[in-house]
Write a structure and sequence with these properties.
Elements: H1 20-31, H2 35-41, H3 47-56, H4 59-69, H5 83-91, H6 95-102, H7 107-114, H8 119-126, H9 131-142, H10 148-151, E1 158-159, H11 165-174, E2 184-188, E3 194-199, H12 200-204, H13 212-215, E4 223-224, H14 229-239, E5 243-247, E6 253-258, H15 259-277, H16 289-315, H17 318-323, H18 326-355, H19 363-392, H20 396-426, H21 431-461
Helix pairs in contact: 6-8, 7-9, 14-15, 15-21, 16-21, 18-20, 18-21, 19-20, 20-21
């Protein structure tokens, strides 16, 4: 337990979560209205650490922490918390306080905070901002969600090509309206069309009299503002970029996308794909019981419908099951193995589609590979399960039937695991969301039909 006025040596425990001692210390300070302690022990933390602390606190404590810290609270920390928590805190604050805080943030962080609010609330807050900042934020908010225009920073350094290096350095030293940190300077023509870019290290190594146009390089990786943020992240990954210009439809410079924003995008997209594969959508740990249940019920309902469809296949073979009780015992093995094998293929395929590593250029090769893997694994597990089943029920016939069904279902699972996501992607449907339901249905139906159908055919001949 941490004594009054003392803080543990770090805010995290060995598991990487906010330590209970530090959490109790902050909670006690909030309960006592001890602003001095909060400013001393929380005010110096990094924005991500403050975000973790906010998520660990109770809802009432979160709002009170922001109120007690007042103008010293770093609103950038709100970009590090769940969407529902951010909305909860923002909605509890007066618009004037929010507007004042937004003026201290980079434009990309300000947009991140504003975009989840209702349009009328956005308008009220924007109306309290200076004209220039209001126009910049409104322009970013007008771009579609999850595009480069939403994630870009509108603070950047741009100079004409006829300036000298000396003029550029003097401009950077004297201007007060520059971003806090940047790694390159963009070159634009009189209409603000992007011409090229110059890295800061090149500026520092060049004589003052040299013109910018002599040392600039083209910007081949300029990103359209309407490009999906995931595609923009793939460009960063492919070309090892630290930052990239963002341009409008007329190739005019409107912002810059930086690596820190792209890392957030990559993390966010990976989490979304993982959650959607599980049929839980955009669920967050901070969501209420009702909200969580509401997000999961639709996919569970679809699964229920497909389960009844699979059960109807089983009902076609009632007589066979009654005659050979062993079939009822072994049925789940065939369907379960097919489902697991298909999920492996589907996961790899969905991720490859999301990262752009799978397309028409290599689809045939990847499909052949997965078919080969399905057949090989099918033969391996057919041999294993067929042997076990034959010994278990003292029947070579039972072992042969389940082995044959296993090969058929593992092959089908591999084929479905790659073709279903590819087909959904071609139809414009998110394969991460819809693939699992179709895959489960196919492996269950094919597994049951192959196993029970082979058994009915075989025993029907005796």
């Amino acid at each position: 337990m941490v004594a009054a006025g003392q803080v543990s040596t770090g805010i995290y425990n060995e598991e990487g979560a906010v330590s209970s001692s530090f959490l109790a210390h902050v909670a006690n300070a909030i309960a006592a209205g001890d602003t001095e302690t909060l400013l001393r022990d929380v005010g110096h933390l990094h924005q991500s650490e403050i975000g973790d602390l906010i998520e660990a606190l109770d809802p009432e404590q979160r709002r009170e922490l922001v109120n007690l810290m007042g103008e010293t609270f770093d609103f950038t920390a709100l970009t590090e918390v769940d969407d529902s928590i951010r909305r909860e805190i923002i909605e509890a604050l007066p618009n004037a306080q929010i507007a004042k805080a937004l003026q201290l943030l980079d434009s990309d962080d300000a947009v991140y905070i504003l975009e989840d609010l209702a349009p009328e609330v956005q308008d009220e807050i924007l109306a309290l901002l200076p004209f220039t900042e209001r126009v910049r934020l409104r322009r970013s908010l007008n771009y579609p969600e999850e595009t480069a225009g939403r994630r870009m920073q509108t603070e950047f350094v741009a100079v004409p090509p006829f300036w000298t290096v000396g003029q550029t350095i003097d401009y950077m030293r004297e201007s007060r309206d520059l971003p806090d940190s940047f790694s390159q300077i963009f070159v634009v023509d009189p209409t603000f069309r992007l011409v090229g870019a110059v890295d800061l290290d090149r500026i520092l190594r060049t004589q003052r009299a040299v013109k910018i146009e002599e040392i600039m390089r083209e910007s081949p990786h300029a990103i359209p503002a309407t490009m999906d943020q995931e595609e923009a992240a793939q460009i960063f990954e492919q070309y090892d970029l630290l930052s990239a210009a963002v341009v409008d439809e007329n190739h005019r410079l409107v912002g810059v996308l930086t690596i820190d924003d792209v890392v957030d995008v990559i993390t966010q997209e990976a989490e979304e794909d993982l959650m959607r594969l599980g049929g839980v959508g955009d669920e967050e740990l901070s969501d209420s019981v009702l909200a969580t249940s509401r997000s999961r019920v639709p996919w569970l309902m679809i699964n229920l419908v497909t389960a009844f469809f699979a059960a109807s296949i089983i009902s076609l073979f009632d007589d066979t099951i009654q005659a050979v009780v062993a079939l009822a015992v072994l049925m789940p093995i065939v369907a379960g193995m097919g489902g697991n094998a298909g999920s492996q293929t589907m996961t790899v395929t969905v991720r490859a589609l999301a990262t752009g590593n799978l397309g028409l250029h290599n689809a045939a090769r990847v499909i052949r590979r997965e078919i080969g893997v399905g057949l090989l694994n099918g033969l391996i597990f057919a041999t294993l399960i067929g042997t076990v089943a034959g010994l278990w029920f003292d029947s070579v016939t039972i072992g042969g039937i389940i082995a044959s069904a296993m090969v058929v279902n593992m092959f089908t699972a591999a084929l479905a695991g790659i073709l279903i996501p590819m087909l959904l992607d071609r139809l414009g449907i998110d394969p991460a969301v819809a693939s699992a339901v179709f895959l489960t249905t196919i492996t269950d139906v094919v597994g049951f039909f192959a196993f029970l159908g082979l058994a009915t055919w075989w025993y029907g001949l005796l």
